[in-house]
Design goal:
Isochorismatase-like_sf; hydrolase activity; Nicotinamidase-related amidase; alpha/beta; 7-stranded parallel β-sheet; hydrolase; 8 helices; Isochorismatase-like_hydrls; Rossmann fold
């Protein structure tokens, strides 16, 4: 697969862009996390932090998705999974390097899907982030699980969705699965695969307005 032909330059208007950060929590991206995603994590954190800093300079809204579980969830009571991401533990806390700042939005979810029984649709509408106007940059973990579900959620709601592959990590081979799936013709019209260095923002920067 020639990724040079797949990853596209993306020019975005800052006031018509939002970022969604999926599940960058201790459980997955802290070295002591139960499901730590391994050696690729530090570079993903670094790339994501740099992208978020740049987006903040351009006043781009940041939406964090926080995956949380409770002991009574069907995942445990019906399907017998071992407990993880339990509220009240360190697992579902967003890592310090990417911690939300004042003014950021946090969405709590209880499945892989950041839209299922969450406030995501309501929050997007309240913020004026609409399919007709906005591009959504999606980053986080796991690339082939919750990030993929998030991308599909925005895709089927007709948002233009931007997927910087260097700002995500998944299970072994996860990124390759995402690239293979999202580079197919079914997604071409509103999903763009890229890397963070290929994203250009246009608009008023914070320093220019201070």
């Amino acid at each position: 697969m020639n990724t040079n032909e797949i990853f596209q330059n993306v020019e975005l208007v800052s006031k018509k862009t939002a970022v969604v950060v999926v599940d960058m929590e201790n459980e997955f991206v802290h070295p002591e996390g139960k499901y730590y995603f391994g050696e690729a994590v530090p570079s993903v954190i670094q790339n994501t932090a740099a992208l978020l800093e740049r987006c903040r300079e351009y006043h781009v809204p940041i939406i964090y998705v926080r995956s949380v579980r409770y002991p009574e969830d069907p995942l445990f009571t019906r399907f017998g999974r071992e407990y993880y991401l339990l509220e009240g533990t360190s697992g579902p806390i967003i890592i310090d390097e990417l911690r939300p700042l004042e003014g950021d939005t946090i969405i709590e979810k209880h499945t892989h899907d950041c839209f299922h029984k969450t406030s995501m649709d309501e929050q997007l509408g309240r913020m004026g982030i609409l399919p007709e106007t906005h591009h959504i940059i999606v980053v986080g973990v796991a690339s082939n699980v919750c990030v993929y579900h998030a991308v599909l959620g925005f895709h089927v709601r007709h948002y233009f969705t931007v997927v910087p592959i260097d700002c995500m990590v998944g299970t072994p081979g996860g990124n390759d699965i995402v690239i293979s799936q999202l580079s197919s013709a079914a997604y071409h019209y509103n999903v763009t695969l890229t890397t963070s260095d290929l994203i250009t923002l246009q608009g008023a920067r914070m320093s220019a307005m201070s």
